[in-house]
Write a structure and sequence with these properties.
The complex is a heterodimer of chains A (about 110) and B (about 120). With about 110 residues, chain A is mainly beta. Chain A is about 0% helix and about 55% strand. In chain B, about 40% of the residues are buried. Classes of the chains: A mainly beta (about 110), B mainly beta (about 120).
Chain lengths: ~110, ~120
Amino acid sequence: QQQVKQSPQSLIVQKGGISIINCAYENTAFDYFPWYQQFPGKGPALLIAIRPDVSEKKEGRFTISFNKSAKQFSLHIMDSQPGDSATYFCAASMGGSARQLTFGSGTQLTVLP
Amino acid sequence: DSGVTQTPKHLITATGQRVTLRCSPRSGDLSVYWYQQSLDQGLQFLIQYYNGEERAKGNILERFSAQQFPDLHSELNLSSLELGDSALYFCASSVEPSGSRGEQYFGPGTRLTVT
């Protein structure tokens, strides 16, 4: 029940296209859903995050769509650029005395020039 | 740059040995998390400290231990190392362990290779 399932495992998109990565969770106690971007040799960097009281959050070219009833959320990257080529991880955490992140398995995004 | 620092960047050691990984959180952050990233297990939570006290344990082996010092830096100790412990170890920090501020900021990681 702690799992976060992420798909696809890899994604190839043309420059200027839309990249879409999907995640699903089981535990309804999760109340914070961040996305992280990781470049080779670097640590994960917080990209954007959402809480279940909203259905969408947009920051620049990055949008999270959240469907509470389906227990799914997705990352949309508009106007994808070669510099967006990285591994993307969705994650979830719940409130309480600790907020450890449960990560999805990651999506390797390649944006072709 | 997240403001979280980790040392060393790379570590190569032999099976059976013991190593210590160090993490300094962002200025003002009281909570430190340790994660392990491997090809087969992905990113997994190990342990969390808040202001010197252990708050949560995840998939951390008994051979591993951690602590957070009064200056808030943290150390992850890995002992009796096995080949399977080879991985990237990340430290993350946040302002508080719970509540509305869930953002965690990750350091650059320590790549551990056990030979």
